[in-house]
Design a protein that fits this description.
Blueprint (H helix, E strand, L loop, with lengths): L1 H5 L2 H43 L19 H19 L2
C-alpha cells in the first residue's frame, strides 16, 4: 500500500477512471451479448415450431400383464443366483 502514497494523485485518479471504463465496457458487452442470445434463441425456437411438423401423440399401448413366475422359472432363478454366488466366492 505504500506505493499508492508515493504515486501522484492525478495518476491514481486516471488509473481508477480507466479501470472503471473497462469494467463498464466489459459488463455492458456481456449484457448485450446475453440479451441478444436470449432473443435469438426464442426467435429460433418459434421459427422451428412453425416450420417443423407437429408430432402426433402416440396411441396408448395396452400394458401387457406379466404372468406370475412358474415353479420351474423360480427354480431356474434360484439356480442362477446360487451359481453367481459360488462364482463370486472363487478367487
Amino acid at each position: 500500500m505504500t506505493f499508492l502514497t508515493n504515486a501522484e494523485h492525478a495518476l491514481l485518479v486516471s488509473n481508477l477512471q480507466d479501470g472503471l471504463i473497462l469494467l463498464l465496457l466489459g459488463m455492458g458487452t456481456v449484457f448485450v451479448f446475453l440479451t441478444l442470445l436470449v432473443f435469438l434463441t426464442k426467435g429460433m425456437s418459434s421459427a422451428v415450431r412453425k416450420i417443423a411438423p407437429k408430432e402426433q401423440p402416440a396411441a396408448a399401448s395396452p400394458i401387457a400383464e406379466t404372468a406370475a413366475p412358474s415353479a420351474s422359472n423360480g427354480a431356474e432363478i434360484a439356480a442362477a443366483i446360487a451359481a453367481a454366488f459360488v462364482q463370486s466366492k472363487k478367487k
